[in-house]
Structures are given as structure tokens and as C-alpha cells.
Write a structure and sequence with these properties.
Elements (H helix, E strand, L loop, with lengths): L27 E3 L7 H4 L3 H8 L9 E3 L5 H14 L3 E3 L7 E5 L2 E6 L4 E3 L4 H21 L3 H10 L7 E3 L4 E3 L5 H14 L5 E5 L7 H8 L3 E6 L11 H11 L5 E3 L2 H6 L5 E5 L2 H19 L2
Parallel strand pairs: 1-2, 2-3, 8-12, 9-10, 9-12, 10-11
Antiparallel strand pairs: 4-5, 5-6, 7-8
Helix pairs in contact: 2-3, 4-5, 6-7, 7-8
């Protein structure tokens, strides 16, 4: 109905058996590969890469993210060779500088040619991959690449290192150990030397111990909440017990999400563990803003 020029089809999980495989695309993208959904995709990076490489189509160029590991790239390149498809891997921009505008972090890189309101090394990786694909498409379809650069600069992504500066609050939908590692890296980069009061909840099928291990070095405290969903969530009690086994010196407590968000804490508060949880938190904030606007 919208008559768009380009559509981004996101694969639900894996790729080989995903419904999006019915579409023959202009380009195939594999952003990252990690040990997630092992019960469905396999228990090694090579097995997971095989499933994800199932999106590769004959003659369609393949673009891979900066952080796709070598053993996974080997599998992807083998599949692409079968399909006679060219493979290009993005290169991580290492020259980033951070500044603040209205208390919001802002990063520039690639010699100042690219800028993002989305902080963190993982967002630079995303931007590098996006620009690689856009350069290819611009050469084939003759659109103005400068507009894409401007769009990247203006991009806002809820629950992806989303900063609420006047409330000392940050939401990030990190939900697996790889994401937790990237979140910890971004926190160190943007707020060097700081400790954080974490609000955390997760679904029961997540590798919670590996996730928490990434955040423990940055933690002043943890408050654990339940994710309200039809899916099974870890209870605050379970999470406290888990943390006590990993880092008994860090204070923790169980609470509700609404109560956690209403508390004033001595350090910057970081909500993470689930995009679903961040969605709940955004809804709570929106409801609170609506109530306050009526009086």
C-alpha cells in the first residue's frame, strides 16, 4: 500500500527454514552470529552459521557484520560459493569519539564522515554494515547516498541504549550474553569509571548467569523484576539467588518494574534483560506522563 522503494525483511530465527526465505532479495545480510537458540539452531557457531547461511540466494550479494567470527564466515563463504554469490564483510570503525548534546551521547567515526545518536561499539558495527549495503544499492539504483548518511545521524532506536538524561535512566534491550558484553562496553565508553544500579528481568530460557557476569564489574546494585508475559520468566527470587552465587558482595533485591522505575538511586539506572521488559517500562513511563499532563 505504501509503495516503498525498498523493504527490509528481518528473519525470525536462523534462516534456512524461515518464512522470509520465500523472498528473493536485492542483498542478503547476516549481522552477527552467537550461541543463541542452540536448542533449535545447533550448539556450535558453525552449525548456527549453516542455518543462517540458508538465506543466501544464487547471484545475490551477501554482506556480513564486522563481528561475525572467522569460523562462521568460513561456513557462509562456502554456501555463497555454491550459489556464486559475492561475500563482503564490514570492517569495524575504530576511530570513534563521544560527545554530548543536551546530555545525550553522540558518536562520530570514519574520519567524522559518519555520526550516530546511538552510542556503543555495536552500533558502529551496525552502521558500518548498513553503509556497506547502501553503497552497493546506491551504485545499482542511483539514489543519493548523502541522504542515507543524514538518516543514520538522525536515527532513534527505542530501548537500544536509550538515555533519559534528566532522570539518570537508561533502557537497553540486551537479552543474551553477547548483547550484555556490548552493553557493558558501551557503558564503559560513554560513562567511563561509573558504577550503575541495574534493573534486570529475563525469560527463563536465557543464559542469565553468563549475562550477569558481563555486568557485575560495573554494578553498584541489582534490582530484579519479573517480565510480564505468557512466556516463563525468571522470578526475582531466582535471580537474587543466582547473583548471590556469582557476586555476594553486590546488593540485590526483588521488586516490581513500576516500583523500580519510581525509585531514586545514587547511580545511573540501567534497565536491561529483555526487549519485552523495556516495552513494559516505556508503557509505564507513557502512562505516568499522561497522568501528570492531566494535572
Amino acid at each position: 500500500d505504501r509503495k516503498v522503494d525498498f523493504v527490509v525483511w528481518e528473519t525470525g530465527m536462523g534462516g534456512r527454514l524461515d518464512a522470509t526465505n520465500l523472498v528473493t532479495p536485492l542483498a542478503s545480510l547476516i549481522t552477527s552470529i552467537s550461541l543463541e537458540h542452540k536448542e533449535y539452531l545447533g550448539d556450535t557457531l558453525e552449525k548456527i552459521a549453516f542455518e543462517k547461511a540458508g538465506i543466501v540466494k544464487p547471484g545475490v550479494p551477501v554482506f556480513c557484520g564486522c563481528n561475525v567470527p572467522p569460523e562462521a564466515m568460513e561456513v557462509i563463504r562456502a554456501k555463497a560459493a555454491e550459489c556464486r554469490s559475492e561475500v563482503t564483510q564490514a570492517v569495524m570503525p575504530e576511530d570513534a569519539s563521544i560527545r554530548f548534546e543536551d546530555d545525550q551521547p553522540f558518536q562520530t567515526f570514519c574520519g567524522g564522515k559518519l555520526a550516530l545518536r546511538l552510542p556503543g561499539r555495536f552500533q558502529r558495527a551496525n552502521a558500518a554494515l548498513a553503509m556497506l549495503v547502501l553503497e552497493n544499492l546506491a551504485g545499482r539504483f542511483h539514489f543519493d547516498l548523502n541522504k542515507s548518511v543524514t538518516a543514520l545521524k538522525d536515527a532513534v532506536w527505542p530501548a537500544r541504549f536509550q538515555v533519559f538524561p534528566h532522570e539518570n535512566l537508561l533502557f537497553d534491550g540486551a537479552h543474551n550474553p553477547e548483547c550484555a558484553r556490548e552493553l557493558a562496553s558501551a557503558l564503559r565508553e560513554v560513562y567511563p569509571g561509573e558504577k550503575f544500579d541495574f534493573i534486570y528481568g529475563s525469560f527463563a530460557d536465557k543464559e542469565t548467569d553468563l549475562f550477569l557476569k558481563q555486568l557485575i564489574p560495573l554494578a553498584a546494585s541489582f534490582r530484579f523484576v519479573k517480565v510480564e508475559s505468557a512466556r516463563k520468566s525468571r522470578t526475582p527470587g531466582e535471580l537474587c539467588s543466582l547473583l548471590n552465587g556469582l557476586a555476594p558482595e553486590i546488593p540485590c533485591s526483588g521488586t516490581t518494574l513500576e516500583a523500580a522505575l519510581s525509585q531514586t538511586m545514587p547511580h545511573r539506572q540501567v534497565l536491561c534483560g529483555s526487549l519485552h521488559l523495556c516495552g513494559e517500562a516505556l508503557a509505564i513511563r507513557e502512562k505516568a506522563d499522561y497522568r501528570s499532563s492531566r494535572y
